[in-house]
Amino acid sequence: MTLAMPTYAMSYFKLPLKMCKEISALMASYWWGENNGKAKMHLCSWKRMTQNKNQGGLGFKDLVNFNRALLGKQIWRLPVDPNLLISKVLTAKYYPTSSIFKCKCPQNASWIWQSLMGAKQHVEDGIWRKIGNGLSTDIWEDKWIVGNKDERPQHPNLQNAKCKKYRT
User: Fold this and answer.
1) CA-CA distance, 84 to 90, in Å (whole number)?
2) What is the DSSP string of 63-115?
């Protein structure tokens, strides 16, 4: 159960935890509140109601995680669709010489940018670099080896390696 208005706002702004709890309480009150002065019957727990339908739940959203996922989707769009106007504006303003995953959040950043940066780590934890021709891959810094503990090359002598990134 998602409402159109909170979903749009949650796509660009990190909602305060208190607000997410209040919205969840309103949804629970609808299902478990009163009807003609009598308390409604609790047929299952809220945890069960928020499980996916294929797992036996009702598919209600955990609003904190849903908010994080929507913000992560916006972060993902920036490098994947660099020709979008929003991608061009945010790139020029906040990370003109690096990637979104290496930039820092300035103290005077907009609320939208602060919200996106709050979810950035969750997106970064789940991505690996696709090598392609290898020209833009930094094998020492980028995550690119799936299944490896650090997703990077491991060897005892790597600590002293003097290798550089290939450039044309």
Assistant:
1) 10
2) HHHHHHHHHHHHHHHHHH-TTSHHHHHHHHHH-SSS-TTT----TT--HHHHH
> Around Cβ 9, how many Cβ atoms within 10 Å?
15
Q: Give pTM, 2 decimals.
A: 0.72
Structure tokens at 15: 């909602």
Query: Helix or strand or coil: residue 103?
Result: coil
| pLDDT tens track, the chain, 168 positions | 455 667 888 999 999 999 988 988 888 887 777 777 777 777 777 788 888 889 988 888 888 989 999 999 999 999 899 999 999 999 999 999 988 888 899 999 999 999 999 999 888 888 777 777 877 777 777 777 777 666 666 665 555 666 655 554
Two tokens, residue 52: 């996916």
Cα–Cα dist 145/154, whole Å: 10
**Domains of the chain: which residue ranges?**
4-63, 65-125, 128-168
> Residue for token digits 């002065």?
37
CA–CA dist 5, 165 (Å, integer)? 46
C-beta separation of 60 from 49 below 8 A: yes
Distances, alpha carbon 4 to alpha carbons 7, 8, 9, 100, in Å: 5, 6, 9, 28
